[in-house]
Each structure stands twice: as structure tokens, then as C-alpha cells.
From TrEMBL:
Domain Beta-ketoacyl-[acyl-carrier-protein] synthase III N-terminal span(s) in chain numbering: 107-190
One biological process term in Gene Ontology: secondary metabolite biosynthetic process
Subunit structure as annotated in this protein's UniProt entry: Homodimer.
Key words of the record: Acyltransferase, Cytoplasm, Fatty acid biosynthesis, Fatty acid metabolism, Lipid biosynthesis, Lipid metabolism, Multifunctional enzyme, Transferase
Organism (species): Tateyamaria omphalii
Name the UniProt record assigns to this protein: Beta-ketoacyl-[acyl-carrier-protein] synthase III
Gene Ontology CC annotations of this record: cytoplasm
Lineage, uppermost ranks: Bacteria, Pseudomonadati, Pseudomonadota, Alphaproteobacteria, Rhodobacterales
Length: 322
């Protein structure tokens, strides 16, 4: 069986760190409110030197370095983002150029906070079909550019950054014990558009800001996340007892805890970075994977379950063995 196995992981965070307390100067909010409602303590915001493609390139280079590979060895780049530098070309082709890669192909995937899960499933299909041998999968976002800084219910929740994985085709026995992506599950339901969206875009002739009915999104999150994770785990032929790490989308610690509980997995098996990064949308899962790998939590052979939900609504899960 052709499996997409992880060869390397890396991330990039902009140098500007903003603590919750900084918002107290301009908004009717508090460190205590933000911390207790979301689990967020600080986040990174892009500086004038950072764009989605520059951060994505740095994360991709870090993942290539860890894999001991160069851009020459890569066949495809799949980049999950809702905040590309330009309307077109894709941020992925800009990363391709920045890496000095003149062969292969690159494209963006847009599924908001579920973007990385979608991109992973996409890259997995490229590898399983024989279209590509090695794929860089990136999540990169500059949500600071779509914040309404007068809206305390959203602007304190998001952050910027990028994370990347290098996947490589491996012909292995294809059991749940073998490394690689074991199963994927993707879902969306466009009826929920009004719960989370940007109120502008190219075809409407406006720029727009992120709008969210946070408590409504919350209502959908735990149930849909636990259900998609369970579907993916069933397809993979694994149970909650087999899971070494849940690497969830990092939007809110209460959603992360609620989902883990519903999955029957204790919080000491969950990689949590929301306190330091805030919600970085499509970047949050590869960022958490990279931090979890560097901290020594995620080890070779570990079974990981990722799950994410965001605007659309779009949600999904990927089960993989590192
Ligand atoms: N500081 C102080 N008070 C605030 C703030 C703030 N920053 N923001 C909102 N409040 C107030 C509200 O105005 C409200 O006041 P009221 O009761 O007087 O009307 C009160 O706090 C409670 O507001 P809720 O929205 O009900 O608070 P909740 O406990 O639901 O927490 C939160 C809000 C953190 C947004 C939560 O609902 C959440 O995390 N939702 C999910 C977000 C998410 O997962 N998004 C999906 C991924 S993102 C993507 O796809 C881009």
C-alpha cells in the first residue's frame, strides 16, 4: 500500500508577541476574560516583514531541513490559507518560487480553520494515486489583517503564523501499525455561512473583516469534532485507547477539552498551544505538531488524531502514525 508518511515538520512564528493585557488599553476587555473564556494568553502578529507566503516559506524550509531534503526533492506544495498575499496567484506558487523550485506544482486550499485537515487529505490523495512522491503541506495565515480591532468578541482570539509537514510516499504493509496517514474524513455544510465569515471579498467589491457568532460556532464544534474524529478513527481501524496524541485545531481550550472528553481521551494526551498562539486558523495544527515534536511529546511511531472546524462550516479529521 502507498502511504503518505511524515518526513519532517517545521514552523514559523512572527517576532511580535502580544499579551492579553495589551488589549485592555483599547477595548473593554481583560486578561481574565480572555484567559477564562478561551484559554488564550498571548498570540503572535505579523510584522511589516511577514506575509502569508513568507511565513509559509520559512515553515516549509524548516520542515525540509528536518527531513534532510531540499526543494529539488519535492513534487508538490499544498498550502492551506484563507489569507493569501494576493487574490492570485496562489500563495503556494509564491512559496514555490521562494524555495527556488522550478518543477512540480503548487496550489492553495481554502477551508478556513479546517484548511490544514483538508490540505492533508488532499496531499494524501496525491500520494496514494501516484501523482506525487513528496509533498509539502503548509498551513499559513495572517488573520491580524482581517480583524475588526473595535470588535472585542473576535479580535482577541486570533493570531498569525505558519506550520508545515513534508510527506513522502512509502510502500508499506498498510496496517494501523505502519507509519503514515491511515484515514481522513472531511465535511462541510454551507447553511451555516452566517456563523463565521468575512463580510467582503473580490466579487463583492469590498475588503471586509471577520465576523463570528462565537457561542453558535461553539455549539456545533464539540459534537462535529468528536463525530469526525470517530469516523476517521473507525476508518483507520483504531480506538481511543490506541491514540497517543490528539492534535486539535487550537481555537478555544474549552472546545479542545469538551472534544477530548467526548472522544474518551484524557487531556494529558492532547497537544495544547492555544495559550501561546491564539487561533491561527489553518496554521494551528501544523504549528502544534511542530511544537509537540520539538518538546518531545510526539515520538516516532505515535498515533495522532487531528480534528478541526471553521468557517463554512467546514470540518474534518485525519488519523496518522508518525
Ligand atoms: N472581553 C470581555 N467581554 C467580552 C469579550 C471580550 N473580549 N468578548 C465578548 N464579551 C462579552 C459578550 O459581549 C457577552 O456579553 P453579554 O453577556 O453582556 O452579551 C459575554 O462576553 C459572553 O459572550 P459569549 O459570546 O456568549 O461568550 P462565550 O463564553 O461563548 O465565549 C468565545 C466567547 C470565546 C468566542 C467562544 O464562544 C468561542 O470560542 N467560540 C468558538 C470560536 C471558534 O471555535 N471558532 C471557530 C474556529 S475560527 C475559524 O474558522 C476562522
Amino acid at each position: 500500500t502507498l502511504r503518505a508518511v511524515v518526513r519532517g515538520v517545521g514552523h514559523y512564528l512572527p517576532s511580535r508577541v502580544v499579551e492579553n493585557a495589551e488589549f485592555e488599553a483599547t477595548l473593554d476587555t481583560s486578561d481574565e476574560w480572555i484567559r477564562s473564556r478561551s484559554g488564550i494568553e498571548r498570540r503572535h502578529f505579523a510584522t511589516d516583514d511577514d506575509t502569508t507566503s513568507s511565513m509559509a516559506t520559512a515553515a516549509a524550509q524548516a520542515a525540509l531541513d528536518e527531513a534532510g531534503l531540499s526543494a529539488e526533492d519535492i513534487d508538490a506544495i499544498v498550502l492551506a490559507t484563507s489569507t493569501a498575499d494576493l487574490t492570485f496567484p496562489s500563495a503556494a506558487t509564491m512559496v514555490q518560487a521562494k524555495l527556488g523550485m522550478t518543477h512540480g506544482f503548487a496550489y492553495d486550499v481554502q477551508a478556513v480553520c479546517a484548511g490544514f485537515v483538508y490540505a492533508l487529505a488532499n496531499a494524501n490523495a496525491l500520494i496514494a494515486s501516484g501523482q506525487a512522491k513528496r509533498v509539502i503541506v503548509i498551513g499559513a495565515e495572517t488573520f491580524s489583517k482581517i480583524m475588526d480591532w473595535t470588535d472585542r468578541s473576535t479580535c482577541v482570539l486570533f493570531g498569525d503564523g505558519a506550520g508545515a509537514l513534508v510527506l513522502e510516499a512509502q510502500d508499506n504493509a498498510g496496517t494501523a501499525r505502519d507509519p503514515g496517514i491511515l484515514a481522513t474524513d472531511l465535511n462541510s455544510d454551507g447553511r451555516h455561512r452566517d456563523l463565521l465569515y468575512v463580510d467582503g471579498g473580490v466579487s463583492t467589491g469590498t475588503s471586509g473583516y471577520l465576523r463570528m457568532q462565537g457561542n453558535q460556532v461553539f455549539r456545533h464544534a464539540v459534537e462535529k469534532l468528536a463525530a469526525t474524529a470517530e469516523t476517521a478513527m473507525e476508518r483507520a481501524g483504531v480506538t481511543a485507547d490506541d491514540v497517543d496524541w490528539v492534535v486539535p485545531h487550537q481555537a478555544n481550550i474549552r472546545i479542545i477539552q469538551g472534544t477530548a472528553k467526548k472522544m474518551g481521551i484524557s487531556m494529558d494526551k492532547v497537544v495544547v498551544t492555544v495559550q501561546d498562539h491564539g487561533n491561527t486558523s489553518a496554521a494551528s495544527i501544523p504549528l502544534a505538531m511542530s511544537v509537540g515534536r520539538k518538546s518531545g511529546q510526539i515520538k516516532d511511531g505515535d498515533l495522532l488524531v487531528t480534528e478541526a472546524i471553521g468557517g463554512g462550516l467546514a470540518w474534518g479529521s485525519v488519523v496518522l502514525r508518525w
